[in-house]
Amino acid sequence: MAQKPSIPKGTRDFTPIEVAKRNYIFNTIRGAFETFGFQPIETPSFENSETLMGKYGDEGDRLIFKILNSGDYLSKANTEAYNTKDSNKLTSSISEKALRYDLTVPFARYVVQHQNEIEFPFKRYQIQPVWRADRPQKGRFREFYQCDADVVGSDSLWQEVEFIQLYDTVFKALKLEGVTIKINNRKILSGIAEVIGASNKLIDFTVALDKLDKIGEEKVKEEMLSKGISQDGISKLQPLFSLSGSFESQMESLRTILATSKDGLKGIEELAFINLAISELGLTTATLQLDVTLARGLNYYTGAIFEVSAPQEVKIGSIGGGGRYDDLTGIFGMKDMSGVGISFGLDRIYLVLEELNLFPETVNKSVEVLFINFGDKEALFSLKAIKVLREAGINAELYPEAAKMKKQMTHANRRNIPFVVLVGEEEITSSTYTLKDMTLGEQYKVSLQDLISKLK
RNA sequence: GUGGUUGUAGCUCAGUUGGUUAGAGCGCCUGAUUGUGGUUCAGGAGGUCGUCGGUUCGAGACCGAUCUUCCACCCCA
Question: Is there contact between A9 and strand B, defined as CB under 7 Å from any strand atom?
Fold first, then answer.
């Protein structure tokens, strides 16, 4: 115990207030998920390595936390890999399990494994922590929560429409204004790649394009060139860099650029469908924006791609993302099962709400009323009243010791308890309760009945 | 994984070119006030200067390693 205890990099302890605030977000999201008809599932915090490895690209594999085998793991280690210090090769022989990296792949595994019990289309939500061996930064942790909602077994674009509404519903409920829901379509991206003759370099192309707003047009072109995309092809992209204006006008330009790409035009049709529906239905707080440069990660998206940006004044990455994947369960041997889903980044939403001061005052409140303890006789009398209050659904407690009054009052004050009840000898004889309002500083004598109605 | 950055009291931070017992504000504790918190007043406690090692007569200041924080890249919620 000589050393100070500590926790691993990128992990956090949560104080009661922080937990209360996190629960506020969880409950809001969960409530919205349920009103949209999603059902909860949970999956293990660790999976078999082969379930996860290779599903997120090379970069993803590097960021997956591997769990060392139990027992004498070196005896089964791949000696060749060990001797040549080939970490990648060695890993699979000493580690068979890995911590969950996201909620989507475990969900795909779940669907395949439970396909005979599931009623499709299956709408599930899942709120659990995930782990990434990333280098932490602000809003980037090695352990964090994702809140996912996905639908499998329906190709319908109405699902995409509903997910946009779901985002809007959650951010409205959190009173978070100025959120932008960016949307794009994988088919448009592959269409553009096709048009510029870079179909085989789709990922490199999209990764570079994704950086447009960050590093600028010139650097993007440089990166594309260095990845082997032809100068000729890049010059065909010119109209793309100057794309701006409304959803509709951007679509018009895209139609021209993608005129020769069947795939690309299909993507435009899908976006047009979604946009039309959303403009009919309307959004309350969020804004839907077409962003052709949106190409975030996940190699498995095949249709819509979503990303949610926090209000501009908060400098933080995205607070949510998602998309359509036509064949996610294919990797586990179940063909033609289309899925689409979105994710909320709880920890980042937390930072945003904190920065904008959007947590309601009431999240701090633990107990409604504290009874001051004057001694055993008074405590027993108080507990009788507390019992009645609790039965009426009022959070109430007794200070456990007959400490100095000042100490008990200070305790109530620090814990943000809005009411204090004083029951001394005088109150017992007259069967009354002195109720003190801690915010106003006023107090009055009331009956048990009045106490209940005042506190309810 | 690469490059950089940060770390002094519970919190926010001072600490001059290395030089006696390391400071402030806020918070905390005690009392004024033995049935009244949040205000006021008077006292008081609290620091292995992230950790380990090195240079030096002397290190909170300089050097190295390590951990942590934040930032950029990578990638991403």
Answer: yes
Residue A387 structure tokens: 């019992």
Instruction: Output A61 or A201, whichever has higher pLDDT.
Output: A61
Q: Which of A226, A298, A307 is nearest to A59 (CA)?
A: A298
Architecture of A16-43+101-355 per CATH?
2-Layer Sandwich (3.30)
pLDDT tens profile A268-326: 999 999 999 999 999 999 999 999 989 876 567 889 999 999 988 887 878 999 999 88
Give the CA-to-C1' distance from A183 to B10 in angstroms: 46
CA nearest neighbour of A352 among A321, A392, A388, A309: A309
At A3 the pLDDT is 56
For chain A, what are the domain ranges?
16-43+101-355, 366-455
Distance of A4 CA from B55 C1′ (whole Å): 28
- Read off the tokens for A126: 């899942």
Instruction: Return the amino acid letter for A199.
Output: S
If one counts every other C-beta atom within 10 angstroms of the C-beta of residue A350, the result is 20
Q: Is A135 annotated as contributing to ligand binding? A: no
* CATH class of the structural domain A366-455: alpha beta
Is the ipTM reported for this complex over the cut 0.85? yes
CA of residue A429 relative to chain centroid, distance:
56
Distance from C-alpha of A144 to C-alpha of A134, rounded to nearest angstrom:
11
Q: Is there a cis peptide before residue A121, judged by omega within 30 degrees of 0?
A: yes
pLDDT the model gives residue A456: 87
